């Protein structure tokens, strides 16, 4: 548990936005093509659509597209730390944050780094950013989670793919969510999910990964109870890492017999609001819990300023963290639900053939020049191609 003095500055999420590619696959089409009952995907997995990224929307372009709409010139000048969290890295050496810094036109007097720990990476980024902002008065931190979830065609994990980014500006006296300095976390080497450097697809021990996820949540929840940090009656919502909505639901259900009925009912009702966006986008790995946060804030009109929210972040491999935040006065003024739902509604539906062909498309790996065309006219940033093994962004 982190010890932070009680007179430490108040810090947290001042702005939050997201980007997801403008193509999707309907999971009923996927079910038919794979010989599955559509209800397995719609109810059993709890997903309806999944975003599919074209080659020009890689994790760098998506990250810049998520952050661009929420930053003003003053923010850009004051960002002292830029973190891109991803498990879909494009380079073994150079941080994707450096490309993003360039695309966003940020002041160069900042630290730009990339963080990896599966789906936990963005939470590591948020917590580091909070520490940075506490110790650097006047500076802000930009944390962007950006991933393309790939398990492979005709694999058990295929239905739990997706793509997208969530950007968060971390500042003092934030407008949306104050993050409490005390949190609980666990790191334990586990073989539930991994992606070796030579593979473009992840490997997962699916059922085992579900057990580890729920087990880590249970451990942290019990520890929080022992320390008096998570009284159910004080929690207005509990967010989960959502690789697919059934997974978060399993985490929440593990509380059913342990907390009072009205508390469980309230948390369940809020959980439904937290999965509205994710069900249409799919797994965005490390950004999934933050897409759930955005979804909750933009789709639940019963939450109130001052409400306390718990967040359970899980990254395979495995790291889990349970932390808490409090909604700030006027937080709704910082959100834009209509823009986000319209962007989802405006996406182009893919046929199975188009999806499989996009999935199999790869950038040149032999040093030859490849030019890409922009597939999302509404996105300010895209990957224009590759030349001498170097990605070229516009
Ligand atoms: N109607 C309704 N429900 C149905 C159904 C039907 N006709 N047919 C099946 N179902 C239900 C099943 O009962 C099951 O429900 P429960 O999980 O509640 O038991 C559910 O649909 C899934 O069915 P299966 O168990 O048969 O599914 P599967 O074996 O094909 O695989 C999976 C499911 C393990 C999640 C697989 O998609 C997978 O491996 N995904 C990737 C791994 C993953 O995401 N793990 C999550 C934890 S790790 C993590 O979170 C990190 C990360 O982001 C990767």
Give a description of the structure.
- The protein has 394 residues and is an alpha+beta fold.
- The protein has 2 domains: 11-178 and 335-365, Peroxisomal Thiolase, Chain A, domain 1; 182-330, Peroxisomal Thiolase, Chain A, domain 1 (3-Layer(aba) Sandwich).
- Helices cover 34% and strands 24% of the residues.
- The chain is built from 13 helices and 18 strands.
- Strands 1, 4, 5, 6, 7, 8, 9, 12, 13 and 14 form a 10-stranded mixed sheet that branches.
- Strand 4, helix 5 (96-104) and strand 5 (111-115) form a beta-alpha-beta unit.
- The chain is globular.
- The model has no long low-confidence stretch (mean pLDDT 97).
- Acetoacetyl-coenzyme A binds at residues 37, 39-40, 43-45, 118-119, 156-157, 159-160, 192-193, 204, 206-207, 209-210, 213, 241, 243, 246-247, 283, 285, 314, 316.
Short description:
With 394 residues, this protein is α+β, with helices and mostly antiparallel strands.
Query: What kind of sheet is the major sheet?
Result: 10 strands, mixed
Structural class: alpha+beta
CATH architecture of the largest domain: 3-Layer(aba) Sandwich
The fold-level CATH name of the largest domain is Peroxisomal Thiolase, Chain A, domain 1
Bin the strand percentage.
15-25%
The overall strand count is 18
Count structural domains: 2
Q: End-to-end distance, in Å?
A: 43 Å
Number of distinct helices? 13
Shape: globular
CATH superfamily of the largest domain: Thiolase/Chalcone synthase
Radius of gyration: 20 Å
Question: Bound small molecules, which ones?
Answer: acetoacetyl-coenzyme A
Helical content (DSSP H or I, runs of 4+): 25-40%
Q: Provide mean pLDDT, rounded.
A: 97
Q: Which residue ranges are poorly predicted, with pLDDT under 50 across at least 5 consecutive positions?
A: none
CATH class of the largest domain: Alpha Beta
